[in-house]
Each structure stands twice: as C-alpha cells, then as structure tokens.
Design goal:
The chain is α/β, with parallel strands linked by helices. It is built from 13 helices and five strands. The radius of gyration is 25 Å and the shape is globular.
Length: 373
C-alpha cells in the first residue's frame, strides 16, 4: 500500500510563516488556501480531509504538498506565465538575483541597501558580463524569483533543547494513533468590536461597519479541542486562560474516548498547560500530553482550523455582546462539523466503533459484532 501524501517536517521558520498566513488571512486567497493545505497536512490530516477543508480537488492538494516538498515556501506563489523567450540566460538571471540579495558593502559599494536604479547601474559596470536589462524588466525578474523589497525584521527560532524529540513524539502520535489523538489550544482574545472582513457585494456598495471608541465588554478566549480522527472541532469561550479551564477542556477530550484506553493530546507548552495538577490528572486518566516545542506552536494541528474560525465568525462581524458572539461561534462549529467530514473519515469512524463494540462483546462472553465497511 502506498504511503499517504504528506508534507515533510516543517522547519521552525516555515511553521511560523504558515501559521501567520492562516491566522491573519490578510493575503491573497491563493497563498491563504495553500498555506492552510500545508499546515493541515503537517498536523496529520489526510488529503481527503484537507480537500474538504479548503474546498479544493484532492489532486490539487497533492500537487501543492509535492511542490512544497520540492521548493519549500516558494510553492505558495505559483508561477503561471508565458510570453516571449527571456533575453537573459539562466546564469545571468542567477547572477542578478545573487547580486540583489548581497549587501552592497560586500561588493565595495558605499550603500546599506540597493534601489532598482543603483542595482541596475552596478550591473552595467560589472566587468566580464553584459547585463542588458531595463528597470521594469529587472523588477519583474526579481519578483519572479521571489526577491521583493521588504522591511528588515528580527527573527527567532526555537531554543528548546528537546525540539526534535517533541516533534518526533507528535509525529508518532499522529502516524500511529490518529483516531486517539486530539489537539488543544486557546484562540483569541476575540473582543466585542466591529471587525473588518470581506463579502460579496455590488461594486462600491460593500457593507459598512461602525467604528468604536469605548470597548467595555472585555475579552474572552476560545478554548478549542480538535479530534484528528473524527475531524471534529469543539470548544467553549472563557473569560481568561488558566489551569482550571485547561483541565476542563482536557476532561472533555477524555470523555470523547470513555473506553479508558490511552489518549494523546497535542498542546502548547504554556504555564497554564503544564501545571502539576494537570500532569497528575493526565497520568491518572491515561492521557498522554504531547507538548509542542517552545516558540513552535505551528506544530499544533488545531492551528490550521483556527483560520476559518476567525474568517467566518469574527471577520466582517459586529456582535453586540459576548453571548451573541458565542452563539454565532457555536453555530459555525455545528455547521462545520456537519459538513466538513469526508466519507472516508466516516467509514473509518464506523470501523473503529465496530471494533470497540466487538472487543467489548468478546470480553463479556458475547458474540462479536460484524465489522461495518
């Protein structure tokens, strides 16, 4: 049997970039949907489930995953283009890109950065090469090769000494026990305020939302739980994060599998998640906690499902208070769970339930049940 199509292990930088795109949603629909595919695949979701999540064809999802495994995050920007043959050879293009991404000081230029004009003037003076290109063609070349004018940013990577071990533990649970693996995380804080979004409307007649000056309702946090095997998302709004709220969410996960067999929960390594009270309860309840590495919350499979939650319940909304907002959120969750399941997932659920009933019947001396296809 062929191995299921899945993205390779994400680096810390790739995970943060995909998480940022999915959570913010402030980018092109192509990048947003492709980032959601990759993040969902990294979270252990199979291709049929991902295709249903992003409303795409399964072959499209497989192509995006294969493309990511080949060229990494460059697959977020597909290159659909044609036109006349290029005037520069591939070696010349590579030289231009390498020059543009090199600090001018290293090339003997008294500059801290290039502009298009200064870069073009330098390329025309390079000895041993003839670079015949105009300003607009140079800009298009850099954009086509993924080189854009950006603000300088600071960066950080996970300094967790157990980085690889924690990712291995998460992957082991997703690969070996998908039907008994869950994910938990907090989402928010969603406040009570008009939130800009997008909608279908006649040109120049989009919905208008009022502005606010005083926000007296406070904020809440959505404590979400996601079942990998069932593709089910549920949760509850709380006024704050804390050990008691985390423990209540974990107990709801344990209640979803009341047979007493081991349950695996993937969650962030926050202070409210790893208190002694929670660790003691997890040990007594046969719940195995799989913590994500520090500064690597992208490894939590629930992250890919928080993007649609924000886009379809908070964006383009103007809820008057928290109860109304909570009802809208739960209405979306009910709709999502009723429409997002793939037939293969439902068949796997039926087979798992039949197996459990059969084992219970054998332990009690009864006749085993027939497996449901």
């Amino acid at each position: 049997m062929a191995e299921p199509v899945r993205v390779r292990r994400l680096t810390d930088h790739e995970g943060h970039q995909l998480q940022r795109i999915v959570r913010r949603g402030s980018t092109s629909s192509v990048r947003y949907r492709r980032a959601m595919m990759l993040l969902a695949s990294a979270g252990g979701n199979r291709v049929p489930v991902i295709a249903r999540l992003v409303q795409a064809d399964e072959d499209t999802v497989r192509d995006v995953i294969h493309r990511f495994n080949e060229i990494a995050l460059a697959c977020l920007d597909p290159r659909w283009a044609g036109g006349r043959p290029r005037l520069l050879s591939p070696d010349d293009e590579e030289f231009v890109v390498q020059t543009a991404t090199t600090r001018p000081a290293k090339l003997g230029q008294p500059l801290t950065r290039w502009s298009i004009r200064k870069l073009l003037a330098y390329l025309r003076k390079v000895h041993g090469r003839v670079i015949r290109i105009g300003r607009e063609a140079l800009r298009c070349l850099l954009a086509r090769r993924g080189v854009t004018f950006q603000r300088t940013k600071t960066w950080k990577e996970s300094i967790d000494p157990d980085y690889d071990a924690k990712l291995d533990r998460i992957e082991h649970a997703l690969d070996r026990f998908p039907d008994r693996t869950f994910a938990f995380d907090e989402f928010g804080p969603p406040g009570i305020r008009p939130t800009a979004g997008s909608c279908w409307a006649r040109q120049g007649r989009a919905d208008r939302l009022p502005a606010t000056y005083k926000r007296t309702h406070g904020v809440t946090y959505f404590h979400g739980c996601y079942s990998i095997g069932d593709d089910t998302l549920w949760g509850v709004n709380r006024r704050r994060k804390g050990t008691a709220n985390t423990l209540a969410a974990l107990k709801s996960i344990r209640a979803a599998r009341p047979d007493g067999a081991p349950v695996y929960v993937i969650l962030d390594n926050l202070f409210a998640h790893n208190r002694k009270r929670i660790l003691r309860w997890a040990k007594n309840s046969n719940v195995h906690l799989c913590f994500t590495p520090t500064n690597a919350s992208w490894a939590n499979p629930i992250e890919a499902h928080f993007g649609p939650l924000r886009q379809f319940t908070l964006a383009n909304s103007n809820h008057p208070n928290h109860p109304v907002q909570t009802r809208a959120l739960h209405a979306y969750l009910r709709w999502r769970n009723a429409n997002a399941r793939h037939p293969e997932v439902l068949a796997a659920q039926r087979r798992e339930r039949a197996r459990i009933r059969s084992e219970k019947g054998l332990r009690r001396g009864g006749r085993p049940l027939q497996a449901v296809a």
